[in-house]
Write a structure and sequence with these properties.
Largest sheet of chain B: 7 strands, mixed
Largest interface: A-B, 19 and 28 residues
Shape of chain A: rod-shaped
Oligomer: heterodimer
Structural class of chain B: alpha/beta
CATH superfamily of one domain in chain A: PAS domain
Structural class of chain A: alpha+beta
Radius of gyration of chain B: 22 Å
Number of strands of chain A: 5
Largest sheet of chain A: 5 strands, antiparallel
Strand order of the largest sheet of chain A: 2-1-5-4-3
Strand order of the largest sheet of chain B: 7-6-8-9-10-13-14
Low-confidence stretches of chain B: 1-39
Mean pLDDT of chain B: 90
Number of strands of chain B: 14
Low-confidence stretches of chain A: 1-7
Number of helices of chain A: 5
Mean pLDDT of chain A: 83
Distance between the termini of chain B: 78 Å
CATH topology of one domain in chain A: Beta-Lactamase
Chain lengths: ~260, ~425
C-alpha cells in the first residue's frame, strides 16, 4: 500500500481558497440587500414625495382660491395677478392660472403665452393631472374651486423635474448610506473569515507536518503552539497528534514482531 | 444753547457730528439729524419737508424713475430757491427698487419707520405699488399716504386700498378704453394684447378686455413677456403667437425696453399693424432705442401710437408746459446721485424733455400746492383734508383738478401721440394715419 505523501504549500493555499466562496456569498448577499432596499426606497420615496407635492399644490391652490374671492368680486385682476406672482416664486411651483366660471383665463403666469394644451383642457377640472407642456417641461397640475366653482377655479402646476430631482437626492442619500454599510460589512466579514481561516491553516500545516513525520520519521516538535490552543482547533490538533502517536506505536509493534 | 444750527454753522459741526449722533441715539441729547416727522405727524425739522421716494433708478426701467425724478426736481428746485413751502425746503429721500416689488416693500418700510418721511411720493410701477398698498393699510394709524404714483392701475384707485393713495394721472382703464374705442372706430376690431406678465400687464389687459366687451368683442389674442426683459431679447415667439390670430392692432402694456423689442420684431416679421403703448412705456426712451443705429430710423416706428396722460411737451400754448420748459432748461436736474440701496450705477443720458418728466413736474406742482394749503404747521393728520381742499385747481395743463373723498384721481384726460422724427407729437387723425384695417 502506497503511503500518503506530505501536503505541499499549494495544497494548503487551495484549502484556504475555500473561504473565498464564503466571502463572495457575503458580498452577493449584501448587494442583493442594497439593491432591494434601493428599489423599495425609490418606490416609497417617489410615491410619498409625489403625494406630498399633490397635497402642497392642493393647499396652495385652495389658499389662492380662498384669497381670490373678494378680489374677483371687486374685478381687481391686477391684485389677483400680484397674488399669484407671489406664489409662483415658491420653489417647484411653475405656473398658476385662474379661470372664470365660464372658462375665461383671468390671470396666469405663462410666458410667452398660454400653452395650447392648457387652452384645450377642462377649465373647471380639480383632480390631479400630469401635463407635458412643450418647451416648459412636465408637471402635476391640481385645481381648487373658488366659491365652490361659481366664481372660477385656481390651477397650480408643480414641476415634475424638480420632483424627480428631489427623489433622486433622497434616494441617492439612502443608497450612499447603504453602500457605506455594505463596504464596512464586507470588510468586517473578510476580517472575520480570516480570523477563522488562519487557525485552520495552522492546523492544516500541523497535520501536514505529522504526515511528513510519518513518512520520514521526523516528528514535528511537541511544543507547537497549536497544541496549546483551548479551542476546537487545539482539540483537533491534539487528536491528530494522538492518532499519529497511535499509528507510530502500531508501526513500532509491527516492526518488533517482524524483526 | 448747543443747537444743531449753531453746531453746523460752527467749524465744529463736522468734527462733533458722529459722537453727537451716538449720544442722540442713546437719548442723552436731542437728535440733530432726525429727519422729517415725529410721532405727532409733524416734520421734526422746521426747515424741511421730506418726501419718500422708492422708484426704478437702476435696471431696464431706470429711465422712468430718473425722468420722473428730474421733472419733479425742476419744480422743487424752483420752489426751494424761492423760500420753499411756508419756509420749509422740500427734500426727496430716494431709494432704488429697480422696479422690483420686494425691494420696494423694504424701501417703504425704511422710509416710513427709519426715515419717518412726511409722505410717499413719485413711486414707479404697478407691481411695486400694488405690493406696498397693504403696508399703508397696516400702518394706517401713521397716516402715511402715497401721492401720485407713476401707474394707472386700479388697486390704488379702488377698495380696499384706494383710501391710502392719491392719483393725478388717468388710469390704464381710461388709456386702454381710449385706444380700443379709436381702433374700433376706424374698423380695427381685432385687437390683441402684448403685456408684461405681472400686475401692471394684467391691469392693462383687464382694461382692454373691458373696453372690447363694451363693443361686443373679445381680445383677438394675447402674448406675454417677463418683467425686466431687455431690448436685446427676441420677441419673435410673441409676435408669431399674435400673428397666428390675425389681429388688426396690438396694444402693448409694458416697459420701454421690451415694448421696443416687440415693435422691432413685429415690423421685421411683417406684422404691419398699429402697435399702441400706454403712458407707462416711456415714449422717448422707447423711440431712442428703436431709432438708435438704424440706417432708416423710422423703419420700426411707423406703426407706433402711444397714449399719454399729460399733454404734449411741445404744446407751449399751455402755461404748465411753458413753465416746464423754462425750469427744465434753468435747472437741468441731473440723475440722482444720492440714491439709497441702488443696485447698479449704470450711466444714464438724461432727456431734455419727455412725457415722463413732464408728469413728474406736474406731480411736484400739485403736491407743492397741497403742502402750501397746510399752512405753517404741516401735519399728516390734516393731509387728507388739504388734498380735498383742491377743487377746480388749474395746473396749467388744460384740465382743472379736483379731489374729494370719492374722487381720488385728479386728471381724467388721455392724449394720443405718434412718432415724428425723434419725438412723439399729437395724433391729429386716426382715420388717416391707421384706418381702415
Amino acid at each position: 500500500m502506497k503511503k500518503p505523501g506530505p501536503m505541499t504549500r499549494s495544497q494548503v493555499v487551495q484549502v484556504r481558497k475555500l473561504f473565498r466562496k464564503t466571502r463572495f456569498g457575503i458580498f452577493a448577499l449584501f448587494a442583493v440587500v442594497v439593491l432591494s432596499i434601493s428599489l423599495l426606497s425609490i418606490s416609497t420615496v417617489s410615491r410619498e414625495l409625489r403625494d406630498e407635492y399633490v397635497s402642497n399644490s392642493r393647499s396652495i391652490a385652495k389658499n389662492i382660491a380662498d384669497s381670490s374671492v373678494d378680489i374677483l368680486l371687486n374685478r381687481n385682476l391686477a391684485t389677483l395677478q400680484s397674488l399669484i406672482d407671489q406664489f409662483v416664486e415658491i420653489q417647484s411651483i411653475r405656473y398658476i392660472y385662474i379661470t372664470s366660471d365660464t372658462g375665461e383665463f383671468l390671470a396666469h403666469t405663462f410666458v410667452p403665452g398660454i400653452p395650447e394644451e392648457i387652452l384645450a383642457s377642462d377649465p373647471n377640472a380639480t383632480e390631479p393631472v400630469d401635463r407635458s407642456l412643450p418647451g416648459l417641461g412636465d408637471f402635476i397640475e391640481v385645481g381648487s374651486p373658488i366659491l365652490s366653482g361659481v366664481a372660477g377655479t385656481v390651477h397650480v402646476g408643480m414641476d415634475l423635474e424638480l420632483l424627480a430631482l428631489t427623489i433622486q437626492r433622497a434616494v441617492g442619500q439612502q443608497i450612499y448610506l447603504l453602500c457605506i454599510i455594505m463596504v464596512v460589512g464586507v470588510l468586517a466579514s473578510i476580517w472575520l473569515v480570516n480570523l477563522a481561516s488562519r487557525p485552520l491553516g495552522e492546523l492544516l500545516d500541523y497535520v501536514a507536518g505529522l504526515a511528513r513525520e510519518h513518512a520520514s520519521s521526523d516528528r514535528p516538535p511537541d511544543d507547537n503552539g497549536i497544541l496549546v490552543r483551548d479551542d476546537e482547533i487545539g482539540d483537533m490538533a491534539r487528536l491528530m497528534q494522538f492518532v499519529a502517536d497511535g499509528a507510530d506505536d502500531v508501526r513500532e509493534s509491527q516492526g518488533r514482531r517482524g524483526g | 444753547m448747543l443747537t444743531r444750527r449753531s453746531l453746523l454753522h460752527s467749524g465744529l459741526g463736522a468734527l462733533l457730528a458722529a459722537p453727537w449722533a451716538r449720544l442722540a441715539r442713546a437719548g442723552f441729547v436731542p437728535d440733530p439729524y432726525a429727519r422729517s416727522v415725529g410721532a405727532t405727524g409733524r416734520p421734526k425739522q422746521d426747515d424741511e419737508i421730506v418726501l419718500g421716494v422708492s422708484a426704478a433708478f437702476s435696471g431696464p426701467s431706470r429711465g422712468l424713475g430718473t425722468e420722473l425724478y428730474r421733472g419733479a426736481m425742476a419744480y422743487f428746485n424752483e420752489v426751494n430757491d424761492n423760500g420753499g413751502v411756508n419756509g420749509r425746503r422740500i427734500v426727496l429721500k430716494l431709494y432704488d427698487d429697480g422696479y422690483q416689488p420686494d425691494p420696494c416693500v423694504a424701501n417703504t418700510i425704511s422710509l416710513m419707520q427709519d426715515e419717518s418721511v412726511f409722505l410717499l411720493f413719485g413711486y414707479v410701477g404697478t407691481p411695486t405699488v400694488t405690493r406696498v398698498l397693504p403696508l399703508l393699510k397696516k400702518f394706517r394709524d401713521q397716516q402715511v399716504y402715497l401721492f401720485f404714483p407713476f401707474t394707472g392701475a386700479e388697486p390704488q384707485r379702488e377698495p380696499p386700498y384706494g383710501e391710502f393713495a392719491f392719483n393725478l394721472r388717468s388710469s390704464y382703464r381710461q388709456e386702454t378704453a381710449g385706444l380700443v374705442d379709436n381702433f374700433v372706430r376706424i374698423g380695427r376690431r381685432r385687437v390683441a394684447v402684448f403685456y408684461q406678465n405681472d400686475a401692471y400687464g394684467r391691469s392693462g389687459w383687464a382694461g382692454v378686455r373691458e373696453a372690447m366687451a363694451a363693443h361686443g368683442e373679445t381680445m383677438a389674442g394675447e402674448a406675454t413677456y417677463t418683467r425686466g426683459t431687455q431690448f436685446g431679447a427676441s420677441m419673435r415667439r410673441q409676435v408669431e403667437i399674435l400673428q397666428a390670430r390675425s389681429p388688426d392692432a396690438v396694444i402693448c402694456i409694458g416697459a420701454y425696453q421690451a415694448c421696443a423689442a416687440f415693435a422691432r420684431d413685429a415690423a421685421d416679421l411683417g406684422l404691419h399693424i398699429p402697435v399702441a403703448n400706454v403712458s407707462f412705456v416711456g415714449s422717448e426712451n422707447l423711440l431712442a432705442l428703436m431709432r438708435e443705429g438704424r440706417e432708416d430710423p423710422d423703419e420700426h416706428t411707423r406703426f407706433l401710437v402711444n397714449s399719454q396722460v399729460v399733454p404734449s411737451y411741445e404744446d407751449t400754448s399751455l402755461p404748465a408746459v411753458r413753465e416746464y420748459h423754462e425750469l427744465m432748461s434753468r435747472y437741468d436736474p441731473p440723475p440722482p446721485d444720492n440714491v439709497e440701496r441702488i443696485t447698479e450705477g449704470e450711466p444714464y443720458d438724461p432727456l431734455p424733455q419727455s412725457f415722463v418728466s413732464l408728469e413728474g413736474f406736474v406731480n411736484a406742482k400739485l403736491i407743492t400746492e397741497i403742502l402750501r394749503g397746510m399752512g405753517d404747521e404741516p401735519d399728516r393728520s390734516r393731509l387728507e383734508e388739504a388734498v380735498f381742499a383742491v377743487r377746480n385747481y388749474d395746473l396749467g395743463v388744460g384740465e382743472r383738478v379736483s379731489f374729494a373723498p370719492d374722487r381720488r384721481q385728479g386728471m381724467q384726460r388721455v392724449y394720443y401721440t405718434v412718432p415724428e422724427g425723434d419725438r412723439f407729437v399729437p395724433l391729429e387723425d386716426w382715420e388717416t394715419r391707421f384706418g381702415p384695417a
